[in-house]
Amino acid sequence: MPTIRDVAKRANVGIATVSRVLNSSPSVSDETRNAVLAAIEELDFTPNPIARQLSTGRTSTIGVILPYLTMPSYVERLRGVQHALAETDYHMVLFSVGKPSERDAYIKDLPRNNLVDGILIISLPPDDSQAERLANADIPTVLVDAYHEKLCCILTDDVKGGKLATQHLIDLGHRRIAFLSEPLETPFHPSTKYRYQGYRQALLENDIPFRSEYVISETRGRFKAKKMAKKLLGLPEPPTAIFAGNDTLAIGILDRAKDLKIKVPKELSVIGFDGIRDAEYTNLTTIDQNLFESGVEGVHMLLKALEAAPSTPCERRLSLDLIRRKTTKKVKV
Amino acid sequence: MPTIRDVAKRANVGIATVSRVLNSSPSVSDETRNAVLAAIEELDFTPNPIARQLSTGRTSTIGVILPYLTMPSYVERLRGVQHALAETDYHMVLFSVGKPSERDAYIKDLPRNNLVDGILIISLPPDDSQAERLANADIPTVLVDAYHEKLCCILTDDVKGGKLATQHLIDLGHRRIAFLSEPLETPFHPSTKYRYQGYRQALLENDIPFRSEYVISETRGRFKAKKMAKKLLGLPEPPTAIFAGNDTLAIGILDRAKDLKIKVPKELSVIGFDGIRDAEYTNLTTIDQNLFESGVEGVHMLLKALEAAPSTPCERRLSLDLIRRKTTKKVKV
DNA sequence: TACTTCTCTGGAACCGGTTCCAATTAAAGA
DNA sequence: TCTTTAATTGGAACCGGTTCCAGAGAAGTA
């Protein structure tokens, strides 16, 4: 592999000049520039990015820490990140997290080891000491779908979203509203819990008594949702509407309803949460939390922070949009 | 940031000794080792990986080139890669490709610029000159779901899979078998075309006349599949079975059948291809091409190549498994 | 005791870029 | 004609590790 010194020798110039040509510095005469370019061409020279990285201290790489791609929402966010990053010169290193210990290890090491210029953490809220560490590092960090007062973040208000979903059902006249979700307590992001809080708040504000038999929260995945939906729909007084903690679960409920020949939305209203692609295909009414956009915005915020570190943590709240499709309807009286 | 020299000074040893401690070389006395470790602790020193990379020429990083995560099969393969890589010390840099020009750029630059120790290319077959370049680079490359004689690869035999799927339907007594798929000609991987070839071959071998009205191949996504299924099922002599080019399309067909009150599998058999998770949930009979495993195996092959470059391209063919679920059945006579 | 061998250790060179700083030359101004 | 100034250029130091090689002691051997 030829180096910058080989090029310099060949072009009869100094190494500094070659470097200047590589970095398109204006203070090189056309004549020398051409000579250097010719030498580069002849030697088929490519600058070694690692050497540049060591020298400049910049890596042109951003690190993305996110959970294993087990949920469509993570994938959709990652897609947004990729999309936004494709238009820059930054590379992306992926650190995917299966257990809390992995998360902690990445969050601990990444800010210190000069491997990346910036960090994007998706759907993994750091604890106070981690946030402290991240905030004090000289590498900027942006949280996507997570909040900490010390850090920049792209936020989704899950409580509000849960309220919005529930209120939509209430506005349609429903009173028997069930909530079906993944476990409320997770090692990672507590978004489900927040959505549940929104559900409770909406009930409270509308003077609708809470019924514990209407809440099932140990439901992982579409298949399980289908199973659990049966339980809900088999109650002596079954709900007329179900708010699912995410779209995948909602689709599972739709599956079951079809099997049970329960007409949606005529006999049962179903609303999801997330706004993944499948929700569109299945005509699911849902709360769209703009997943793709969250990734894009996360990158933009990080790029801004890379240019000039913000004096105070910036915060951007993404909109939550109720998308009315064909799975919710006025309750029949 | 403290450097190795700061540590050396603090511990009253030479920098070489500190380096030896960092790399757990055996030829350091316990006494000096402890002194160095103490100094490292006191200074909160972390070695700079970039400097190490420059010095050793190794980056502990592998580059993954793959299409944008628009299809579940890509995500599933990537998951496999992540899973296998998590058990190693390698990092993963993701290069995702939306247009052929991006693919070409990555394949051109990545092998030369010392940024990664190895390259994994997923579902993007290189042309001859690219393969040549990759084969001659001193960085090993492994193709996953793509073939080139000059390169190591993890293979799926799409023709065979297409045949397998079609033969399954034929064995069940079907004669009117449709094929619904994404476009046959794509800028990237021609797997759909191969599956189609398998379909044609199976028909031929069983003396079943080919009918062009049974082939619809411009179908992108579940939603479009639903639309196109209507067209197929509305034919004067509709097919009794449909082979879908991938699971997502098959699920779209199931949606439509439900809407049209066509009973699956009693009145219509449907088989997919891929073996994504949704296929399990929907009880779809499919050809499982072991997507997750392809990612895992790709990493293993690459790791092996990193240890010792294989003298001749190695090749591993993944099994294709017919998973009989509840969407195919003997045709009613 | 003298010599060899082995165990540890430190210095300096190296990886391949960037960049500060001083030097050279040409153009401009007095 | 003599400065002053601007435009180019090259050398050397630097980024922060690894590693070759030589040297100092300690231990083993004749």
| CATH fold-level name of the largest domain in chain A | Rossmann fold
> H/E series of chain A, N to C?
HHHHEHEHEHEEHEHEHEHEHEHEE
Give me the secondary-structure category of chain A.
Answer: alpha/beta
Instruction: Assess the beta-strand content of chain A as a share of residues.
Output: 15-25%
Largest sheet entry of chain A: 6 strands, parallel
Terminal CA distance of chain A reads: 79 Å
Biggest interface, CB < 8 A: A-B, 42 and 42 residues
Shape of chain A: elongated
What proportion of the residues of chain A is helical, as a percent range?
40-55%
CATH class call of the largest domain in chain A: Alpha Beta
Give the strand tally of chain A: 12
State the assembly state of the protein chains.
Answer: homodimer
- pLDDT average of chain A, as an integer? 94
What tags apply to this protein structure?
alpha/beta, homodimer, 6-stranded mixed sheet, DNA-binding, Rossmann fold, 45% helix, 6-stranded parallel sheet, elongated, 434 Repressor (Amino-terminal Domain), 333 residues
Could you please describe the fold and organization of this structure?
The structure is a homodimer of 333-residue chains. Chain A has helices at 4-11, 15-22, 30-43, 49-56, 72-86, 100-109, 128-136, 158-171, 191-205, 221-233, 247-259, 277-281, 291-307; strands at 61-67, 91-97, 118-122, 141-144, 152-155, 177-180, 215-216, 241-244, 269-274, 285-288, 315-317, 321-323. In chain A, helix 1 (4-11) packs across helix 2 (15-22). The first copy, chain A, is elongated. Chain A is α/β, with parallel strands linked by helices and 333 residues long. Chain A has three domains: 4-47, lambda repressor-like DNA-binding domains (434 Repressor (Amino-terminal Domain), Orthogonal Bundle), CATH 1.10.260; 59-156 and 291-318, Rossmann fold, CATH 3.40.50; 158-288, Response regulator (Rossmann fold, 3-Layer(aba) Sandwich), CATH 3.40.50.2300. In chain A, the strands form two sheets. A six-stranded parallel sheet of chain A has the order 2-1-3-4-5-11, sandwiched between helices. The first copy, chain A, has a six-stranded mixed sheet with strand order 7-6-8-9-10-12, sandwiched between helices. Chains A and B meet through helix 4, helix 5, strand 2, helix 10 and helix 11 of A and helix 4, helix 5, strand 2, helix 10 and helix 11 of B.
